[in-house]
Amino acid sequence: MIPIAHVLALSVALFVIGAAGFVFRKNIITVFMCIELMLNAVNLAFIGFSRYLGNLDGHLFVFFVIVVAAAEASVGLAIIIALNRNRDSLNIDDLDSMKM
Amino acid sequence: MATFSDTGLLLLITLIKIAVVVSVMLTSIAYLTWLERKVVARIQSRWGPCRVGLYGLLQPLADGIKFILKEDIVPVEADAFLYWFAPFVGFILAFLSIAVIPFGESISIHGHTISFQITDLNVGLLFIFAVTSLGVYSIALAGWSSNSKYPLLGGLRSSAQMISYELSLGLAVVGVVMITGTLSLRGIVDSQAGFWHIRGLNTFIPHWNIFVQPLGFLVYFTAAIAETNRVPFDLPEGETELVGGFHTEYSSMKFAMFFMAEYANMITVSCLATILFFGGWHGPTFGPYLLRALLPSFWFCLKLFCFLFFYIWMRGTLPRFRYDQLMAFGWKFLFPAGILNVLATSLVVAWTSSS
Amino acid sequence: MLILFYVCAVLAVLAALSVVAQRTPIYSALSLIVVLCALAVVYLLLDAEFIAVIQVIVYAGAIMVLFVYVIMLLNAGREEPSQRSRMARWLGAPLLAAFLVEILIAVWNQFPAGNSRPAGVLNAGPAAIGHLLFRNYVLPFEATSILILVAIMGAVVLAKREF
User: Fold this and answer.
1) Is residue A98 part of a domain?
2) Can the peptide bond before residue B151 be classed as cis, meaning omega within 30 degrees of 0?
3) Contact yes or no, A with B (3+ CB pairs under 8 Å)
4) Nearest to B328 by CA among B172, B188, B165
5) Is B198 helix (H, G, I), strand (E, B) or coil?
6) Which domain holds residue A15?
7) What is the ipTM of this complex?
8) Are chains A and C in touch, 3+ Cβ pairs below 8 Å?
9) What is the pTM (predicted TM-score) of this model?
10) Looking at the domain that runs over C1-78, which CATH code has it been given?
11) Nearest to A73 among C47, C54, C66 (CB)
12) How close is the nearest chain C Cα to the Cα of A99, in Å?
């Protein structure tokens, strides 16, 4: 009933919005949330294709993406907490000590 | 495909069901406050509400009028949007989970079957957990948006408690789902009809899940009390501990919404306990057609009332846990107990289904 | 059904724009929760009932709670405009727009609008997913359980206060 092209268009729109946020924003937590937005866009594409092809493997892939995103979010946020404690700043412009 | 009149009729019936369920819920929340005050008062050897109306029965009405007329104080430093948003979210989510709970048998009028349930999802149980998971936000955001020490601490503690006990809540029902084989609430109730038969002999014990899942029931009910922030797990909102916890800075209608959300959650969790472990609306039915249609709902409400009375009884009797004792209990005792229950149930199910 | 899909799609795109555009991180987090719930409804419309509920329970109900906690604990306030060069903005915006247009054209050519191919009713309930998960995909399942254990240990060690 729902054309696959429309589902994919929504997925691409969300992905590009997430990528734009990733490039333009300076607060590290917001950048992390844009990464999660991109992951969700990809999940939507998987579910759309899974329905289009009548195959359940897409659902399994989304399940694993959600689980890995959970693990990644917990470790990433722990790193952000440690960074904030050491540098007292959440701005990615201040996190450039590895630059030459 | 359904014709227009079929869809229109379905929509009309669903809207009527929603109106009935919401009005019954609001009335029962109001009178649950009355019941709580009366029972706790009697446990403490005093009268409770007895001035307003006969036996104090108009007390909830008086409280409602008081809440509407009270001044709505908003702290200057509070985040305006979130301060308004948090109690509404909690209130709406508390009413959303009622949508999948079956209250009784299906009856048929003029050839149409009408079930006493707004909608039956085949992942109904998970839907209730999803709504409960989202309910953590209302407390966390209320605590943070008040921009004050006591609410922030109370909000963080309360939401940490809720997400810890959500795990045990989910594990406790896995045993029931394994035995029943379905996540649909109506399916779970339907599987508890009749009596237990041992070797073909009819013992007159009802076929309820409590008799095969006692540990599951204990874990579920304990986790449910912690989820709804009731005594003995109500440290985050106890008056003697953190002033008022996350709702310290709230007044009048928003404060009332937090309490209505808490009582609605209590009712939902008790409904779920009845459905999962005590056979839902199964009970002796007899008599003419009208009686036989309404008697299951009566049994459901009776069992629900027993659970609510037990909640209130515990409030009057038990002291509260300290916060570190509470978290240790949730993670170090209840969670392993839930896992043990899942292990034991899966072993028994695998054994009996293979032999 | 199609109308509900468009409503949820528009809601998801608006909320995603709000995630990117809000200055305060807490509002970005709340907008992301709205995106997740809108996507859950879209999954329901695409016959993915189990994944929809898992998305709300795990993603919107646990991962985003973690985000909200960290934002509250670090007291992340409003973001000031950057002092550095705006090169990323001037280069990035046209490139991203070009990428969007290119992928949309590719999608539109590959899947012409009339071709939706219902492929019957997909049985995506918990039983079917469970069968697949524990037979064909049992190795990734066990690997992700070890991954979660490692993530828990890593998060505790990284965020611990050094005494």
Assistant:
1) no
2) no
3) no
4) B165
5) strand
6) 4-92
7) 0.92
8) yes
9) 0.91
10) 1.20.120.1200
11) C66
12) 14
